[in-house]
Amino acid sequence: MDQAAEQPRKCPGLECENDASTLQCPKCKEMGVDTFFCSQDCFKRSWAQHKTIHKSTNPLRNLFTPSIVSKVDPESGHFNPFPTYPFTGTLRPVYPLSEKREIPKSIPHPEWSQDGMPRYPYVKKNQVQILDAKGIAGMRKVCRLSREVLDVAAAAVKPGVTTDYIDKIVHEACIERNAYPSPLNYNHFPKSVCTSVNEVICHGIPDHRVLQDGDILNIDVSLYHEGFHGDLNETYYVGDKAKADPDNVRLVETTRQCLEKSIAHVKPGVKIGDFGDIIEKHAKSQNLSVVKTYCGHGINQLFHCAPNVPHYAKNKAVGKCRPGMTFTIEPMICLGTYKDKTWPDDWTAVTADGTRSAQFEHTLLVTEDGVEVLTARLPTSPGGPIDIPPASATNGAVPNGEAKA
């Protein structure tokens, strides 16, 4: 008998190990999905993460436009699909989205490629998969390919190109490597890559907005190849104006350092919860905040699995690092508030105050004596760190992340 079937029904709440009660999510009940929580408080606390499964209620959301849209530009045919939405910042979606890009049938597809539903078996939140030599080899290969695809996309970043063009590049680069872009149709995500501009924290949908000199852009690439997933992202400066903005640089470089400092702590026996303490301490030293809604995750044959890896301090993450486990750390850091809101597309997460956000991510393998960064940068990788300006130019922050006296 399947091991999961022998387990009592567990609460799917965020970082919750309790058994579920008879309290059912009303939206899931409408959808015919059996989802039960241990308590009302746990349900409320987990809502931001849990609601993502509700996207499947309307798989045509990204194919047809809403009933109320802005006026269509007569020259370009573009429009804002959510003109009445109270956007938190200056960024606006530029629709219509391009047609769905197809992957050849000869390339193996994940289970959600047809209906958008990742049908993962139930596992306990502290049940982490330990890979054997064959699994590790599979992860090394897909992560190397993922790095190659990100670098190809990053090389195209410049003022004047659209995020839809970046999506096209990623899509074609995946096909060239006999890989499927993992985000495509995952819970009905309409594109092959996430492109998050300025105040977008994560899950930005590529569209026809033209990148401007002074923007910052996060590109989040994930590949599925020979049964394994690789996942990484970086934030890039768009044009010289972006690098000349002290707050841009403080934000982007501190986020990069947060990831580096947390990775340096990875080794067998280290608590998963420790990474959030390291990240938040460094972010706060630069007067920045840490997003709490989204976290890193286990990754292997499953796109997202145990463990959850929070990036904020004093979290209640379960488990310790063990040799053979693979997971991501992907801190999202903000100039202003850490709180987020989601656009009506049900994907684009933005800062609640409209200030900018940056993110970096690597897929990691815990080794017998430390860590292997499976998605590590190559000598030829575009982007890379630059110096943080003096404190007088960066709202009192400290150059290059040095501790305050």
TrEMBL record:
How it assembles, according to the record, is: Associates with the 60S ribosomal subunit of the 80S translational complex.
Q: What is this protein called?
A: Methionine aminopeptidase
Q: Where in the cell is it found?
A: Cytoplasm
Q: List every stretch annotated Disordered.
A: 381-405
- Comment on bound cofactor: Binds 2 divalent metal cations per subunit. Has a high-affinity and a low affinity metal-binding site. The true nature of the physiological cofactor is under debate. The enzyme is active with zinc, cobalt, manganese or divalent iron ions. Has high activity with zinc; zinc cofactor is transferred into the active site region by the ZNG1 zinc chaperone.
Name one process (GO BP) from the record: proteolysis
UniProt catalytic activity: Release of N-terminal amino acids, preferentially methionine, from peptides and arylamides
* Record has Metal-binding as a keyword: yes
Q: Which InterPro entries match?
A: Creatinase/aminopeptidase-like, Pept_M24, Pept_M24_MAP, Pept_M24A_MAP1, Zfn-C6H2
Residues noted as binding a protein in the record, renumbered to the chain? 203, 304
Domain C6H2-type intervals: 8-61
Can you list the GO cellular component terms from the UniProt entry?
Answer: cytosol
EC numbers? 3.4.11.18
